[in-house]
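Here is one chain, start to finish.
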Amino acid sequence: MSGEQKAEAKVEQAKGKIKETAGRLTGNEHLTAEGRAEQATGDAREAKEKVKDVFKH
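Its structure:
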């Protein structure tokens, strides 16, 4: 299950990056901020999974 969670985190980070880039290109600050927030959520999820891995071993 941990691998699945890591994959979801990477997908969330990628989607956030796409939204941020699209927002910058179109001048849509709301979309840019939404993308950054989505990336941060993905980063936090990834960090949580890394911590769980440390305590597993």
